Amino acid sequence: MSTSVPLTPGPGAPNVPEPGTPEPAGLPPYVAPQWRFCPQCGGPLAAHDHGAGERGTCHAEGCGFVHWNNPVPVVAAIVELDGRVLVARNAAWAEGAWGLITGFLEPLEDPAEGVLREVAEETGLTGRVEKLLGVAPFRRKNELLISYHVVATGEVRLSPELADYRLVEPARLRPWPSGTGHALAQWMRERGHEPVYLDHFGQDPGY
Ligand SMILES: [Zn+2]
Fold first, then answer.
1. Within 10 Å of residue 115's Cβ, how many Cβ atoms?
2. Model-level pTM?
């Protein structure tokens, strides 16, 4: 069963600043929400500063659980099939919104294996990792994006969580200015295609 989730928010969500733009200090409000109860003992979590800001902390005797709120690794794939790139629309997204294949890792899973598993689960394609493109924070979701170029073979059979897909010539790709869009832009530049960013994720590039 796939554990994939959309990497990027639905249309209308605010964008993360361009690379190089200073991030505001501290955790943004969308990261701060948080668990109210201890997953180990069920006791209440209280804010406690361990030296890097307040973290939900369980003070029950013998427990001491701390919700560190570490970023969650997410693998993303630029899937190349017969020279074109597969972009997919999650069933929860509006028409015209396209993204990469993404997903969470299984316990103990190597990310290079996890990204190929996600590609297989979501598209039915058999892939091999051509290159690790980069590792970058996606601060809005407190995720760590591990992006790969995956060369795939086979016939596309989408999982139910994906509603549609397109195979796009590399030069025609329009990256989005958030999340995995920057990995896509980097990949285009490495091929001599200067990317023309969309204004925001979810804008219809007309594929
Ligand atoms: Zn506890």
1. 28
2. 0.83
